[in-house]
Every structure is written in structure tokens, then in C-alpha cells.
Amino acid sequence: MRVLLVDDHPLILSALQSVIQRLGDGIEVVGVGSAGAARQTLNEDAQYDLVLLDLQLGDANGFDLLADMRQLYPALPVVVISASDRSSDVIQAIDMGAMGFVPKRASNDQLHEALRTVMSGGVYVPPMSMGFDGIPQSAPPSAHPVATHAAQAGYQTPPTLAALGLTPRQTDVLALLLQGKPNKLIARELNLSVETVKDHVAAVLRALGVRSRTQAVLAVSQMTQQEGGFPAWRSSRS
Fold this sequence. Notes:
By secondary structure, the chain is an alpha/beta fold. The chain has ten helices and seven strands. The strands form two sheets. A five-stranded parallel beta sheet has the order 2-1-3-6-7, sandwiched between helices. α4 (87-95) links the parallel β6 (78-82) and β7 (100-103). α7 (168-178) crosses α9, α8 packs across α9 and α9 packs across α10 (213-226). The longest helix is centred in the C-terminal third of the chain and has 15 residues, at 194-208. It is globular.
């Protein structure tokens, strides 16, 4: 396993390297201190399994670097490591294709959980950032708490994935949606029409009680964290 760390604080870079190397044997960690160095490193050798990216870099905005990485290396998972845990930053990072968001004040155990979740195909976000402050008060009471605070929704915990009642094909669509794939690629992979995929995506969003793909990713992340891990997705293709 090869991991690229991008952080312009040498002490944090060193600490992250130490934490990640304790995950297991055979882990190679490369640390760079700028966006320019990260671009050069990936340009010379893009064979990495994971990138940990700080948002505050001295020579670039971390979101800009994230956008470049998602465009140039779409199969490379990126986890944002940030001093911020604002909901707006979490949502923007996930919306731009990050597979995880870990605040720098998180514990080593939380970082390990995040990395294990991402490497198993899941998405990790900090539980404290699940609220959507901009959702109107008129949101339906059945809405998932990712779309409205638990107090507004009328219950304390979200439903489980098993309780959503998704069909096997909708589960396939959700699994690919969580990978950030657009409808055209989902349709190609599942051998469906784009219109059929749109219908399945709409059904998944309704089941989760959310309005967008980003909210769906955050909702599933919250549920899988409460259920103790990212599920082994059942596929109707197998």
C-alpha cells in the first residue's frame, strides 16, 4: 500500500506518517509539503493507493488541488485532513469527490477508522459535521437527519441501510453513486439506460430522505458508522 501525504506543516506531516505506518506492514508513506510537490510526485508516478490532503497549503488552495486530482486521477481515493470541521467544508470536499474528511483534532483511532472505511470502498465523514443548517424548516418529518437536525426530524437515530428497503438494483446504483460515478458511467457499468439510472437514483434519494448525491453520501456514511463499518454491498450482478 502506497500513501501520499500532502501537508505544509512538517510536524503534522511527520506525525501522520508515523500514524499511518502503524496501520500495518508493507505500507509506504511519501510526504510532500506543497501542492506543487504533490503534482510533480503524481506526474512522475501516480501508482498510489491513497492521498491524504490538507486544505490549507502555502502555495495553493487545497480544494483546487482536490479538483485537479479528481480530474487527472479519478481512481485515486483522496481523504481530506483539515484543521476545519465546518459542515460547509465537509460538504464541499465530498461534493468534489473526496472519499473522506478527517479533522486534524481527531484521534488516531478515528483516523485509522477513516482509512479502513475508505480503503474498503466506503466514505468517511466526522459525525459532528452531519447537520445541514440551510435546510428549510418545512422539510418533511420523515426526512433523514442528514437533511435536517434530529430534533427537527422527530427521532434520534437514522434508519439502518437494511431498513431502507432498496431493491438489489438500487443497491448497485447506490454503491456506484458513493464512488462518485455519474449517471452515464453507472448506466454503462450496470448495462442500463441513463433514464433508468436516473429513476433508480431518484428512488435512492427518496429512501434516504435527501435531495442530492452529496447528502446521500453523507447519510450513508453516518449510517455505516453507526452500524460499525461499511457494508459488503450486495450486487444483483453476482
